[in-house]
Each structure stands twice: as structure tokens, then as C-alpha cells.
Amino acid sequence: MKSSKLSKIISVTLTSISVLIIALLIYITFFGRDAENPGGVFSYNIDKYRKTDPKLIKFNETGSIDTGFLSVSAVTTDLKDQIYVAGDKAVRIFDSAGNLLSEFQLSDSANCMSVSEDDMIYLGIGDHVEVYNMDGKLLNTWKTAGEMSILTSVDAYGDDIFVADAGGRVVLRYDRSGKLIKRIAEPDEYNNIPGLVVPSPHVDLAVARDGLLRVVNPGNHRIEAYTFDGYLEFSWGEPSMTIEGFSGCCNPVNFAIMPNGRFVTCEQGLTRVKIYTEAGEFESVVAGVESFDMKEDMPIPDGRSESGSMVLDVAVDSIGRVLVLDPVQKSVRIFTEINTQESIKEEEI
Amino acid sequence: MPEKDKDKISRRDFISNTIRGVCLLGLGGTLGLVATRTQAGDTVWQIDPNKCIGCGRCADHCVLEISAVKCVHNFAMCGYCKLCTGYFEPQPNALNTGAENQLCPTGAIRRSFVEHPYYEYEIDEELCVGCGKCVVGCNAFGNGSLFLQIRHDVCVNCNECAISVVCPSGAFKRVNASKPYILKGEEGE
Ligand code: SF4
Ligand code: SF4
Ligand code: SF4
């Protein structure tokens, strides 16, 4: 008796679910589609976030450097405004006008790169750091202790080498010889440190003008400021598809710091490059989604992420030009702030 | 895998090492069903997740009233994100399970807390109509752990799959019935 009642309830429930789904399908088939949204409620539509308000774009694209690589992974600059690009299994060095100066080979492809004040090139390759001089001679190498290490950012600052290990969810502070000095950004309840949330392997870092280390906590959509001893001072950033925030599940993927202290951020998913003030307030757009090949018809799984085609890297030079490494065009795209362009023109007059 | 690449950790290996999951696609039980329905050497239809662009047609072009195509989740690839772009509307009011925040039109994705700050997402196949909306959201921003597969406990294996005719990306292909699923994250490895 009981079991027949139960089976009746189950069958009524299943029938109701089926009726609801069929009703939804009928609705979609006959009413749910329109020209703008052909998939109706079945389509994932973020078109409105792909359009950038032209008033917010304060930069012009003023040039580009063809790297000549088949795939590119990192860009950085030095004090002389030379531009370093890592791609394939090599590093190419260009002058600020984009002329190729030199090139050297690596043992493998590098994820990240930084040039010290004394012209040493630090590269994060898989789970280890390699150090080269300007002639491309390998001077030193060291491996992180973590089993799951994936080095995604390096910054040579004075006597310190900061390395982001996205796999280990930690920032490692080394001295110039590769001796580990401090582990930073690991969860620490006592010191109010939430720990890095890293859904995909992108954690960027750099030391800012105020002498604090900035680290992206991508799953929290925030940029965190740490002392070199690992104390979290403050953080900023909000998750949002709107232009003010960081979109998706994990952003920003990369950032750079302008000579005047402002931040340039790159996002994946909604591929866009934006400027934030030193305090972390959204200011303007360098390049919106429209500036990049979205390749919407790419096969879903790997069209974007696996090929890395939409993960931009960014660097800046001493006059505030924003150098965006475009992995689809395999070029460094140069963006100049409109105010700067005007002041250069005035000087010429 | 070449010897020199053995130590390298690929993007696909990049998963939460605190809550490392196993591939819990729940497809194991249906392998037996396929085996009883087919002869050795038979083929069945399947979607190549590398080609699917999540156009939505799988939901309403199957000959069955409710599509045999379902979303499956490879937990081993998932970031267990708090803000899952396969679960939440693009701009949710809040990161909770409120219906207005959910992307899935049939409420087929269950979100459950694992440990701070990780959440698990499971597909209720009874409710899933295979529209692929979550798949696009997951792939646009996340690790792409959600993808579509024809479930062979439901599919009647038409001579010419009605969806394959309208699929804009040529994602449908015949595969051997002894290996009826194309699991994302495993192919090519
Ligand atoms: S019809 Fe093809 S592209 Fe569209 S959702 Fe189905 S498999 Fe993917
Ligand atoms: S969004 Fe579509 S494919 Fe994803 S679980 Fe819901 S019904 Fe299934
Ligand atoms: S073969 Fe037939 S039942 Fe199976 S998915 Fe295609 S149309 Fe649906």
C-alpha cells in the first residue's frame, strides 16, 4: 500500500518535471528566440558587457611590434625601455621603437619574466627560476619546493626576487642567489590573510611605488598589498562584469604599474585592459573587448584557454606607454594615453 | 609523453590540490547499458567536446521529447569556484542559490559548499535539457569542466542523429560503442 503511494508520488513528480521541461522547450521553440538572442533563454548572453563606452577609452593604439614567435607568453621592460618578449623557447629583446636587438634560447618556454636594475633576466619556467645575463648565458637556476608548482609571475626588486607559484598558491620571496626568505599570501587566520584562491593558473605580482608587494588573488577578484615580511596591509577589487569590476571566476590575470603609480589590468573572458588609480578606483579603459579577437566560434573547450589565446600580458615603459602582449596576433601592441599624445605634440610645436 | 615533458605540469593538471577531485562523471553505469544494446564493433553517436560551441540546438533538435544530450561535469578539471560562471547569471545579485541568480533555465545544477572558499557543482540529469548555456559560461571564464555528452541510457541511437544535421560545428561523430563517451580533459593524453 505504502509503496504504491510512494510510486504514485514519484510518478506524479516526474510527470510534472517532464511537463515543465516540455512546456519550456515549446516556449523556447516558438517564442523564445529573436534576432538579437537566437538561443533565447538557452543562450549565454554577455553581449552588453562586450561593448565599451567610447567615452571611457582614454588610449589610442599607436604601434605594434611583431615578435616573430609562434606563441608568446610574457612581456616586460627594463630601465632603458627595452622590451623583452618570451615566446616559443626563447627571449627576444627589442628597443623601444621595436627593432630587434638580440635573442637567446631557453631550456623551455617561460611563463613570466623580470629584468633587474643590473640587467639580469629572471624567468619563471614551469616549476623553477632561471637567471640569464644579457648575452643569454645561464647564470643560475633554482627549483621551488612545491610538488604542484607553476610559476606565473616574477619580479626582481632590489635584492629580492618575488615569485608567484599559482600551483602552490603562494608567493615566494627569494634573495638574488635563490635562497628562500619568506613565504607570503598563505592562509593565516591570526593575521587576517585569506590565502590565494586560484581556479586557473594566473597569479601576477609586482612591487608598487609605495614599496608594498601587490599580488593578484584571482578567485577573490582582488589585488592585495603585502609588506615584504608577509603582512597583508589592504586590498582592492570587486567581482563584476561591468567595466568597474573584474569579470568571471578569476581575474585580473595580469597587471603592470604605470610610472605614476596607476595600475593597468588585463582580464580574460571579457578580454579588456583597464586603468585603476593607485587606490584601486576604476579610471579608464586602455583597450576594450572590441580590440581583441574574441573568436566566439572557436570550439568551446580549448579555443580560448588551452591555447592561451585570450590571456594577455602587459608591461609599461617609462613614458607610460602600455605594452600589451597579444597572443593571437603574437605581437606587442602599444597603447598611448591620449593626454600623453597631446603633450608630446605640444612639445613638438 | 616525451621524457622531457614528464615533470611539466600542464594547465589541465592544474586543479585544486586541497580538494582534488576524481573524474565523477557518473558515466560508468551507462557503459553497461550501451553494451547490452549494441553488438561488438557497433558505433553510437557522441559529441566531441573539443568542437561543440554550445549553440543551444542540442536542447530542441533531439527526436526525444527531452534531449538525450546532458551536461556532464569533470570534477578533476573544476576550480570549485565560489563565483562559478557556469552556475551564476553573468551579473548575479548575490552569490547564493536564489533562482534569480542561476544561469540554468531548468535549475539543473546543484551548488554545495565544500570548504572555504570552494563550492561543488553537480548536474541533475533529470532536469538537464542539454542546452549548453552553463557550458558556454564555464568555458568563457572558467576551466571548461562542464561539457555536453549524449547519454546512452537515454539516446535511441538514430541512424542519422537529428541534432548532428543542425549542429553548426560538426561536433557529432560516431564512436565505438565500447568507448561511447569523449571525456574532456582526457582526450589526447
Ligand atoms: S548542436 Fe553542436 S555545437 Fe550546438 S550544443 Fe549541440 S553539439 Fe554543441
Ligand atoms: S544550463 Fe542547460 S546544459 Fe547546463 S545543466 Fe542547465 S539545462 Fe543542462
Ligand atoms: S541519436 Fe537520436 S536520440 Fe540520440 S541524441 Fe541524436 S537525435 Fe537524440
The multimeric state of the shown protein is: heterodimer
Q: What percent of the residues of chain A sit in helical stretches (DSSP H or I)?
A: 10-25%
What sort of overall outline of chain B do the alpha carbons produce when their principal axes are compared?
A: elongated
Return the string of H and E elements of chain B. Answer: HEHEEEHEHE
Q: Which pair of chains has the greatest number of interface residues, and how are they split between the two chains?
A: A-B, 57 and 55 residues
Structural class of chain A: mainly beta
Could you give the distance between the termini of chain A? 96 Å
The total domain count of chain B is 2
Tally of helical segments of chain A: 4
Q: N-to-C SSE series of chain A?
A: HHEEEEEEEEEEEEEEEEEEEEEHEEEH
Largest sheet of chain A: 4 strands, antiparallel
Structural class of chain B: alpha+beta
Main-sheet strand order of chain B equals 1-6
Rg of chain A is 24 Å
**What share of residues are in beta strands of chain A?**
35-45%
Which range does the strand content of chain B fall in? 15-25%
Q: Strand tally of chain B, please?
A: 6
Ends apart, CA distance between termini of chain B: 8 Å
The overall pLDDT average of chain B reads 82
Provide a short characterization of the protein structure.
The complex is a heterodimer of chains A (349) and B (189). Chain A is mainly beta. Chain A has helices spanning 2-30, 47-50, 300-303, 338-348; strands spanning 59-66, 72-77, 83-87, 90-94, 100-105, 112-115, 121-125, 128-132, 138-143, 151-157, 160-165, 170-175, 180-184, 205-207, 213-217, 222-226, 232-236, 254-257, 263-267, 272-276, 282-287, 313-316, 322-326, 331-337.
Describe this structure in words.
The complex is a heterodimer of chains A (349) and B (189). Chain A has helices spanning 2-30, 47-50, 300-303, 338-348; strands at residues 59-66, 72-77, 83-87, 90-94, 100-105, 112-115, 121-125, 128-132, 138-143, 151-157, 160-165, 170-175, 180-184, 205-207, 213-217, 222-226, 232-236, 254-257, 263-267, 272-276, 282-287, 313-316, 322-326, 331-337. With 349 residues, chain A is mainly beta. Chain A is globular and about 80 Å long. Residues 29-38 and 300-309 of chain A have low confidence and may be disordered. With 189 residues, chain B is α+β, with helices and mostly antiparallel strands. Chain B has 2 domains: 10-41; 43-176, no CATH class. In chain B, a hairpin with a 2-residue loop joins strand 3 (109-115) and strand 4. The chains are: A mainly beta (349), B alpha+beta (189). Chains A and B meet through helix 1 and helix 3 of A and helix 3 of B. Bound molecules: iron/sulfur cluster (SF4) (3 copies). One iron/sulfur cluster is lined by residues 71, 104, 106, 108-109, 123, 128-134 of chain B.
